[in-house]
Amino acid sequence: MSLAQKINYDDLxxxxxxxxxxxxxxxxxxxxxxxxxxxxxxxxxxxSKASWEDxxxxxxxxxxxxxxxxxxxxxxxxxxxxxxxxxxxxFSHKSLSDISNSCQISASKLRRLKSGETALCLNxxxxxxxxxxxxxxxxxxxxxxxxxxxxxxxxxxxxRLAITKHYFENPNIGxxxxxxxxxxxxxxxxxxxxxxxxxxxxxxxxVNEIIEICEKNNLIEKVNGIYQAGKIKLSDRGSAKQMTDVxxxxxxxxxxxxxxxxxxxxxxxxxxxxSQNARQEIIALYLRFFEDFKKIVTEVKDKxxxxxxxxxNFNLFNPGSDDINE
Length: 326
Known about the structure:
Radius of gyration: 22 Å
Shape: globular
Strand content: under 5%
């Protein structure tokens, strides 16, 4: 059972609100919201659910930049009050049946939420995003809470932080995980460090160390003598410097292997002048692309015996000032 299926989203919603409230009293928050009754108490005890609209008001009291968080984690670059736009973006290029299977909400309810027939509440929002990406959603929730404790997630969050720390310290962890997914490895009757070392170009000693780290952090588990991906997925979410370092690591690996480039590989560069609005649209489109990319990878890899390893490394940046006319 995945993390998304284990979570009680009513509990998560209640605990998130309590965590954001921090040291402020319920009375203080109710006054700020202009509530005539103790609505915070009802939200935290589960007697009523916070609507998305109320949650946004609640966040504004604590100066939480919801727009920045949704842009960072969900690539949503629109009015956060427009739940139809938000859900349309989250659901983009996915069938309602696929989303229903992922988040365990009926397709009919998802359709009503998307159309606005049923108002979006915080509980449903959390259940939808966790069904689509557990690690990123966990990071998003702790961003809302300023990394304060959220009991239902604390244990998993410690695992996420440990995994992220190890990955930043040694991005070859990703290299080994890709290798363990190769058909040649899956055909082995028992785990062979030598196979992984040859496939990755790493020493057997380093492979051993990485396997130990991955096993300890539930990234992999041994089944019938060989390793398989565990329920916790790798995420490179971190500081800008850490993420830049990881991307530099993979870019250097790609450059070092250019001489082995296949004629079927896609590559190239574009330089162009454009407007600020177009720039924002291009960045949003580029970020949404990864949702389609992940879907293609997960759907195709198990059906195709002719498997190759690809490194996808994008750099989209502004080489000059924000305004080319300055």
